[in-house]
Amino acid sequence: MRIIGGQFKGRRFNPPADNWPTRPTTDFAKEGLFNILQNHFDFEDMKVLDLFGGTGNHSYEFISRGCMDVTYVDKFGPCVAFAQKTAQQLGIEGHIKIIRADVFKFVPTIRGIQFDYIFAGPPYALPLIDAIPDLILNHQLLKPEGWLVLEHNPNHNYQTHPNYFQERNYGKTIFSFFSQQQNL
Predict the structure, then answer these.
(1) DSSP states of 79-124
(2) 138 vs 108: CA distance, rounded Å
(3) Phi and psi for 29 in degrees, rounded to 5?
(4) Which is deepest, 3, 7, 50, 104, by most CB within 10 Å?
């Protein structure tokens, strides 16, 4: 795993991921996604929520690029410990809130907070993966111009969802984009 842009560009991390329920986004897919994001958002002004945060790959990338407010959520203890250790090594503890929680239980507890960008990178085999867009959108966690990006494989298709507005395909990694506003 490496950070591909910003202050920590090129920094590599080797999570002790034997038997972890994680699947870090490939550098190729992450680079494509961040090229899209940097043309739409000013990272320094963003409030980001990283759901199913795993190794923290996306969180570190945002902070490396100047984002000062990232919330990371994962329920797997070793992943959370790794994210805490990495945040400490990078000296970014003031920019990241690391929360150990089940996403489906955590999201309904968020009150009065909205995000510019929410990334959800769940395990592809997660039985409730198709419920994630509605979970986020029904709790109104996105700011009016905010985006939700759901990472998934070709076994899922969200193009008929009323809040879907685009998809980017990087081999077996697909990013579906959603907005609180319909039909962007």
Answers:
(1) HHHHHHHHHHHHT-GGGEEEEES-HHHHGGG--S--EEEEEE---T
(2) 9
(3) -70, -40
(4) 50
Instruction: Quote the CA–CA distance of 83 and 47 in Å, as a whole number.
Output: 18
Confidence class for position 125, pLDDT limits 50, 70, 90: confident
CA atoms within 13 Å, Cβ hemisphere of 111: 1
Q: What is the pLDDT of residues 142-152, one digit of tens each?
A: 999 999 999 99
Residues 170 and 29: beta-carbon distance below 8 Å: yes
Helix axes 57-64, 77-90, angle to 10 degrees: 20
Contact status, residue 64 vs residue 5, Cβ threshold 8 Å: yes
Query: HSE of 14 in the Cβ direction (CA atoms, 13 Å)?
Result: 0
As a whole number of angstroms, the distance between CA 82 and CA 104 comes to: 22
